[in-house]
Amino acid sequence: MKMLKFDQMDTRHDTIKANHRKTCRWLLQRSEYLDWRDAGKISEHHGFLWIKGKPGTGKSTIMKYAFTAARKGQRNSTVISYFFNARGEDLEKTVEGMYRSLLLQLLEKIPALQSIFDATIWGSYSLPKFTIEVLKDLFSLAIKSLGRNCLACFIDALDECNINDLRDMVAFFEDLGEQAIAAGVRFSVCFSSRHYPHVTIKRKLELFLEGQEGHKQDIESYIESELKIGSSARADQIRAEIRERAADIFLWVALVVQILNKEYDRGHIHALQRRLREIPDDLNELFKDILRKDEQDPGLIPALQWILYSRRPLKCEELYFAILSSVALSEVTAWDPVELTLEEMSKFILDCSKGLAEMTRSKQPTFQFIHESVRDYLIQETGLQSLKPELKGNLVGLSHEHLKQCCYDYVLIDWPEHLRLIQPLPKASSKEAENLRNTLSGIFPFLEYAVHSVFYHADTAHGCGVSQTAFIKGLQDSHDTFLTSPPLEMWIILDNLLETFQIRRHTLQATGAYIFAEKSLSNLLEVAIEQDSPTTSEAERYCTPLGAAIAQGNEREVEFLLKRGADPNRRIGKTSFLHLGIQKRNVNVVRLLLQRGADLSLDRQEINILAHLSSAGTDTELVKVLLDAGVSVNAQGGRYGNALQAASSRGNEKMVQMLLDNGADVNAQGGLHGNALQAASSEDEKVVQMLLDNDADVNAQGGLYGNALQAAFSRGNEKVVHMLLDKGTDANAL
Known about the structure:
Blueprint: H1 11-15, H2 31-37, H3 42-45, E1 48-52, H4 59-73, E2 77-83, H5 95-109, H6 113-124, H7 132-144, E3 150-156, H8 163-183, E4 187-193, E5 205-208, H9 213-226, H10 233-245, H11 250-265, H12 272-278, H13 283-292, H14 300-309, H15 316-327, H16 342-352, E6 357-359, E7 367-369, H17 372-379, H18 383-387, H19 395-411, H20 431-443, H21 447-463, H22 469-475, H23 487-498, H24 512-518, H25 522-530, H26 545-552, H27 555-563, E8 571-572, E9 575-576, H28 577-583, H29 587-595, H30 604-616, H31 620-628, H32 643-649, H33 653-661, H34 676-681, H35 685-693, H36 708-714, H37 718-726
Parallel strand pairs: 1-4, 1-5, 2-3, 3-4
Antiparallel strand pairs: 6-7, 8-9
Helix pairs in contact: 5-7, 7-8, 9-11, 14-15, 14-19, 15-16, 15-19, 19-21, 24-25, 24-26, 26-27, 27-29, 28-29, 30-32, 32-33, 36-37
């Protein structure tokens, strides 16, 4: 269960403001919702309700209300949810995060499913690696195993995940719905999204927020409660005009109410009606109006760029110093929380973002835009470029260039004056190192992000056409500051200090090319190689940039380096680069190495890998590549003796057939089970039949059980016992 969990699982749900008092209740009385909950009508809609609305209508608030109401009102049902978040970290906006979250909620609410999951994870897969397909298989199994349990899923903001993943997910759920009906399982799903992109589902109920009388009444209730401008006739006129212009867009109403309340608090009662009529009806035009009111603020553009393009959402103190590094680098000093509080930092950020950013409600709060439509306006509607015309033509590249420069400047501030360092650094796992990390992060809260992301932003900028040639060259040059070492060396010291695993640290002699390869920064790697930068880093974990690229499974880098003459036959200790590629199970990397002359001579450890790949069951293509390249299908060694025995022991029909087709000796001796037939006899009758069809010796002796018949008998596999006896095995062998 811990492997399914991730820190931001509930961030979006928790950040959505609770529905305003007395709002959203109308949903539970709508015929669409009632029909969705009616078990007698399941054949009409297959358990699907899809709530749709324009951006800013309040879909997420309604979904949060519906989810909460379902949990309270359906005592005999299990209710789970997922709220996609395009403004959050990677897992928050992907179907992988959704499946992991839904599965974890199921396991927590229905503990009986845990044993089924354990058997599936450890029985069918060699490693519990949660790929999308594995997660889908597990979720499907969970639905089929519900029995009399009823399950309702609420999934919000489908438009905030990748469109291709969305189509696949909806098709998967549609298939699950059909399977659930056939199995007599009560499974229902409530989706919400914008009207576009359109995804077809055969049977469903739809509810459109636009035009709903209950939704209009919710907006009216909100205005009456939150617009605090007195109770005069003029105030009533203003309320009526807001209702009339709202066009069902709750976000527009909330922003207008905020603007008018500020005017009223400033004593501008006489100007309220005029200010309201200045406010555009269109949501995007309203964003433009808000941002242009103070477009000369030097913190505005950096704040928007950081929230848009940071590698991950930033905490309050990180974002504060990130913006400050953009507008007043000379004022960036060590942070004293007594002199500068988080509340004061938050006010600064809210002012820079003109109220269009907010703090998430999570264990580790970060800043994000108040709504995804703000991001849409800034990028898709060119709102950011209209504020800063210099960004036109290359918004992404120039923004990442700016963020790179901020990170770079922050890395080079006077942090050594506040931290007493000695070389070599204490071990990464030591208490002393932990104290140093905590001290450094405490007084320079943006430093960890800056160190870990400066090259990421540089790599992205270069990929978008903003050259980093001069930047890479400058990393090796002496710097005209208090620094006595080149910037790259200072970066290595900081990166080593922040690293919690000793093996991941670098020597001070590590080259830029090596670091870029290890970090999968392909654009920067190519620039470094073009500059004829040193490429050998013998003391590093993977020795050369090629070794690092292989370890990361970066096919583009491996191909580039091999074409530039990198040696494919280097070794990392006793491990060859080819062996490393096989360990990482990257078939394309292995192909590239073989094409460039990687040595096929196998040591004992590599033979074990071939057998291990065969037992794992998911690497038939990789095994085939090795066989085609000349690896002996009957190579001996390892726990299972050979690849055929390894595949047979796991009941892997596809792998067994491929090995037999490539000349595997069905009666080869050795290993744990003595031979392939004995290995299969304790597990899988289909593989047993395949081996018998290829003349496996039914009386072969040796191995863990002595012979195949004893293996089948010891595991209680009656069918295999009869199969072996029918083939003439010696019954007295028992």
